[in-house]
Specification:
About 5% of the residues lie in helices and about 30% in strands. It starts with 12 loop residues before the first strand and ends with a strand. The chain is mostly beta strands and about 525 residues long. The protein contains 2 helices and 31 strands. It has 2 domains: about 85-255 and about 260-295, Methanol Dehydrogenase, Chain A (8 Propeller), CATH 2.140.10; about 310-510, no CATH class. The strands form 10 sheets. Strands 3-4-5-6 form a 4-stranded antiparallel sheet, with no helix packed on it. A 4-stranded antiparallel sheet has the order 7-8-9-10, with no helix packed on it. A 4-stranded antiparallel sheet has the order 11-12-13-14, with no helix packed on it. The longest helix is centred in the middle third of the chain and has 13 residues, at about 315-330. The protein has helices spanning about 315-330, 475-480; strands spanning about 15, 25-30, 35-40, 50-55, 60-65, 80, 105-110, 110-115, 130-135, 140-145, 175-180, 185-190, 205-210, 215-220, 235-245, 245-255, 260-265, 275-280, 290-295, 330-335, 345-350, 360-365, 370-375, 380, 430-435, 440, 450-455, 460-465, 490, 495-500, 510.
């Protein structure tokens, strides 16, 4: 259990319980706050018993003997490894250790512990976000992969001048995924933390590494030059699919945008084509949007990525009239995937809070992958400054969509705001105020959904609104069933069901997978 800043007396602990009755077998009290969303299990070797591993603040990786709950003898120094060592230069301030950690359980591959890092999101000089592997028995560093290439490494030239030095971004901040059948480990990298000139490889990419050596086997960058915090918070998942009747071991990746990408695990070949398409460039000085982005051809987006006048909310005639008049009076222009707002045009864009924040689940019998989405837009009036993360003020740590339950409107502000309440949809000033004082977005619902994609065909199998939108109850059934903000993933079972919590209405649901 992690400690909490709300209770200084609450200590981080790891506790072993008897499964039959819940009695405590042992409890380890950590001297530092535990990070991550669980523990990693290593089954041991011929000479060593099983161990548990977890990370703490200030950059330490800890190992416990699973039988005794004591620090693992022979692992690092006294059962802990200082993983902050090796990712800094003398130019990095020592206080950056305070915010460095391994954010999730390490990935165990044979006798290796493989992990990304959370180095923070400040500009250089900062700790690096390298992918690294340690020996599970000794804690010795086995290999490092520089997610921002060093001089002499492929694609180093993509970074102008010294922009590569001491850069904290391009880190894997979700889990890595290991595949014993191919000997590969897959990771999804973050953005560059304030993009610099160039496409910023290997940021915003899925990378496939040799799990034993850390050598790059293949990669695909899914967002070029990310100035809008569009990186991938979800780990890659391994799926076995049939393409034209031929079985293919595949790896699948999604992100904050609503696209689904699938690759042959071994070769990295896209199993469904995506092409580089031109995207809107804001024209704002010092706000460079890459001219093209990779957009899937076969599989449609699983949620909203743009807005036209036809997408205006039509829940009631009053809402439709207000929103249509607002659109016309403010000369809002249509938007699409990867669009950056312009200072000289009003636009509704879809940035970091949308898309898939929750891990995916997969039903191998059906070939369906299940993902939950939030459709949250941001209204940018003409003349408003353009900020990283689409005006969300996201200059600090990565954060999921807001999960508040209030009904406030959220001011227009320079970036337009995202609207209040738990209903999702966002758009701040581009919202209709109901008689109760609550607001409904001018974007048409659904504001949250659960989507099944048939990965054998690349088509969407079904899509349903997710959640009961109690904030819009006064609109009747059309409001209640408009979907709601959500985060967290689903679980697909062999019984043909999909279970999911995730929604801010605090309910747990089961769906028929088919």
């Amino acid at each position: 259990t992690p400690a909490s800043e709300r209770d200084p007396n609450l200590q981080s602990t790891v506790t072993a319980l008897e499964p039959e009755n819940g009695q405590v077998i042992w409890q380890y009290k950590s001297p530092r706050r535990i990070h991550g969303r669980g523990l990693a299990y290593w089954k041991g070797s011929n000479t060593l018993g099983p161990r548990l591993f977890f990370a703490t603040d200030k950059g330490y990786l800890m190992g416990l003997d699973i039988k005794t709950g004591k620090l693992a003898d022979g692992f690092g120094k006294g059962g802990e490894v200082d993983v902050y060592v090796g990712v800094t230069s003398p130019a990095v301030p020592e206080n950056r250790r305070d915010t460095f950690t391994v954010p999730n359980p390490v990935t165990v591959y044979k006798n290796l512990l493989i992990s990304g890092a959370r180095p923070g999101e400040l500009p250089p000089p900062q700790p690096r976000g390298d992918i690294r592997a340690w020996d599970a028995a000794t804690g010795k560093l086995v290999w490092s992969f520089h997610t921002v290439p060093w001089p002499g490494e492929p694609h180093h030239e993509d970074w102008a001048g010294d922009a590569w030095k001491d850069r904290s971004g391009c880190n894997v901040w979700s889990n890595l995924t290991a595949d014993e059948s191919t000997g590969l480990v897959f990771g999804a990298t973050g953005d560059a933390n304030r993009a610099v000139h160039g496409s910023n490889l290997y940021c915003n990419s899925i990378v496939a590494l040799d799990a034993q050596t850390g050598k790059l086997k293949w990669f695909h960058q899914l967002v070029h030059h990310d100035a809008s915090d569009w990186d991938m918070p979800t780990p890659p998942i391994l799926v076995d699919v049939k393409i034209n009747g031929r079985p293919v071991p595949a790896v699948l990746q999604t992100g904050k945008l609503h696209f689904v990408y699938m690759f042959d695990r071994v070769t990295g070949k896209p199993l469904y084509e995506f092409v580089e398409k031109p995207v809107h460039r804001s024209g704002t000085p010092d706000d460079e949007n890459w001219p093209t982005q990779p957009i899937p051809v076969k599989t449609p987006p699983t949620g909203r990525l743009g807005m036209t006048r036809a997408d205006i909310n039509k829940m009631t005639p009053e809402i439709e009239k207000f929103c249509t008049d607002f659109w016309d009076q403010n000369h809002i222009v249509p938007s699409g995937p990867f669009d950056r707002p312009s200072q000289d045009q009003a636009m509704v864009t879809f940035g970091a809070p949308v898309g898939g924040w929750g891990p995916l689940s997969f039903n191998p019998q059906l070939g369906y992958v299940f993902l939950n989405v939030t459709n949250s837009g941001n209204y940018h009036p003409a003349g408003a400054p353009v900020a990283r993360g689409f005006g969300l003020g996201n200059a600090g740590e990565d954060a999921p969509p807001a999960a508040g339950r209030g009904g406030g409107r959220a001011g227009g502000g320079a970036g337009g705001g995202r609207g209040g309440g738990s209903g999702g949809g966002g758009t701040g000033a581009f919202s209709y105020r109901l008689p109760s004082g609550k607001t409904v977005p001018c974007i048409a619902p659904p504001y949250g959904g659960l989507v099944a994609v048939d990965m054998n065909s690349g088509e969407i199998a079904w899509s349903v609104p997710l959640g009961i939108n109690e904030e819009l109850a006064e609109l009747g059934e059309v409001g209640l069933k408009s979907g709601i903000r959500n985060i967290g993933g689903s679980i697909a079972t062999a019984s043909g069901l999909v279970f999911i919590g995730a929604t801010v209405d605090r309910r747990f649901r089961a769906f028929d997978a088919k």
